[in-house]
Amino acid sequence: MHSRKNYRKRPKFHVIGVQLNLNFGDFQHEKWGDQQTCKQGDWLINNDGDIYTVDNEYFRDHYQRIGPGLYKKVAGVWAEVAEKDGRLETLEGSTGYHAGDYLVFDRETAGKGYAIKKPKFERMYEEVDPVLELTPEQQSYIDQRIKLKINEFKRKAERNQWHYYIWQSLAIITAASVPILSAFITTEETTIPLKWAIALFGGTSAVIAGLLSLFKCQENWIRYRNAYQDLDSNLSQFSISIGIYSDRNNAFDLLAENCENILKAEIGQRAESRSPNKKGEDTGS
């Protein structure tokens, strides 16, 4: 293989994306000379006339919405030219390639990869200048501040998402059980256990709904998700010097400013969600 180099998508090359957020089982389709697997929530992509599916997590981490159904790839790639024919395992299946094609990865040490024909790759991608040299303090800020916050917010988003799904499901089940059990009530033959069961399910549903409102699992899930995606997007653009980070002279200062603004906004939203209802305080006076 030739040496692996860093590339970025040329400015005018965007994709049309539609998330397949429908209720269906995994299905397979033929693409790139092999079977590809598509799951619920994955994306159907039109990339300059080439139609294929992309894993949801990969799409979320590497693409940014710029308009209705229109997305741009903000993360850079590392690519090398294949010296001989072969196959490459991808998230969706595998890709056959020929000598001279580009093997594309999401980081310098390989990672998730796919193959692209040489003319198409060179038309859509441009080589990135050597990576900006950072001072130890700047690298420490990225590693110990930005990346740690991205991982922290991602964990909190996933935890709140699961809490919301689990407790909301229990609230729906217990609430639906009340009318079902009530159908067995008769004026003469209603057992005490049945009455207690109806009261228990009704009370449980109300308690769960109150706890969901109190702890704001859904709001926290969305807030943390937006925060880590914003941080990750800024860091990705900075790492390949695109967009607002194309000027290397003040790229790091701009990154630090934008990331601190995101963190400050997240703290403000968290404080606001925990503060008393000011309107309610005013009306009580």
How would you characterize this protein structure?
- By secondary structure, this protein is α+β, with helices and mostly antiparallel strands.
- The chain folds into two domains: 123 residues, no CATH class; 148 residues.
- The protein has seven helices and 14 strands.
- Strands 13-12-9-1-14 form a five-stranded antiparallel β-sheet. A five-stranded antiparallel β-sheet has the order 6-5-2-8-7.
- A hairpin with a 4-residue loop joins strand 10 and strand 11.
- Helix 3 runs antiparallel to helix 4 and helix 3 runs antiparallel to helix 5.
- The radius of gyration is 25 Å and the shape is flat.
- The C terminus is likely disordered.
List the helices and strands and how they pair.
Layout: E1 5-9, E2 15-19, E3 27-31, E4 34-38, E5 43-47, E6 50-54, H1 56-62, E7 63-67, E8 70-73, E9 77-81, E10 86-89, E11 94-97, E12 102-107, E13 110-116, H2 118-124, E14 125-127, H3 136-182, H4 192-215, H5 217-239, H6 251-274, H7 278-283
Antiparallel strand pairs: 1-9, 1-14, 2-5, 2-8, 3-4, 5-6, 7-8, 9-12, 10-11, 12-13
Strand order within the widest sheet?
13-12-9-1-14
Structural class: alpha+beta
User: Which percent range fits the helix content?
Assistant: 40-55%
Q: In terms of per-residue confidence, which ranges show pLDDT below 50 for 5 or more consecutive residues?
A: 278-285
Strand content: 15-25%
Head-to-tail CA distance between termini: 76 Å
The gyration radius over C-alpha positions equals 25 Å
